[in-house]
Amino acid sequence: MSEECTHDCSSCSANCEARDKKSFLEKLNEHSSVKHIIGIVSGKGGVGKSLVTSSLAVMFNRKGYKTAILDADITGPSIPKAFGIKGKLIGSDKGLEPATSETGIEIISANLILDNESDPIVWRGPMIAGAVKQFWGETHWDNIDYMFVDMPPGTGDVPLTVFQSIPLDGIVIVTSPQELVSMIVEKAVKMAKMMKVPIFGVIENMSYLECPDCGKRLYPFGESKLDEVAKAYGVDILARFPIDSEFAKISDSGRIESIINEPADEAADIIEKKISI
Ligand code: ADP
Q1: pLDDT over threshold 70, residue 189
Q2: CATH architecture assigned to 27-276
């Protein structure tokens, strides 16, 4: 424990004995049960974190698991749009009821509590963090096998709240070749270690482009450095998603559940195995 310890672990990142004894985990509502929770993190917005979250949820749902998505990207919520879900959430005597997608995925997102989905969410950090905790603890999560949490990008206040309040089984890091991958991975690895959350691995999105005529792989952002980086930090590469205009088309038009994405399928198999070990 540091000499300047204020005994307020929520504003301190030190990894000390006091922290180990204190749990910030939020309780689930008494009518809810969630077996496994996977957080999807990225260094910044726009790298495809929501596409990865939705693709993995779709793959787990296709495996026959009862699947849910908690969209914790409060100020940039794009999950409802990808699933073509509109309208406002309703409450029942069991809590806030998530929206259900066409194939049965249960979804909670800030976009589903706004009067108008294009309204911006102009909230300060503590309010955003409070919303995430409520989405977790005050929702009626009905016997969910796998929940995917679309985390806010970066390593700030809200991602920290998610790490502290939701009992994640592990995280998936999303990167893209345009980024300073080494720095993003290093930060995510350090944060996960501090929070004692396992890392399932990295998914590189927009990794390559496949020529529709000859099938040759092109690397418009340059060849990826992910192999060396993953090795240096001891994390597995779960998949590389191609740049595919069809992905953008279906996720922007609410038809993500019809996605064909073999790398996502393979990543889902690896995560499933890692969780069941
Ligand atoms: P983030 O959640 O990281 O902000 P999104 O998943 O919302 O990013 O993706 C940003 C935009 O890029 C969306 O319009 C999405 O459809 C598109 N996109 C993401 N990944 C791909 C990809 N592999 N190929 C083509 N478009 C993609």
Answers
A1: yes
A2: 3-Layer(aba) Sandwich (3.40)
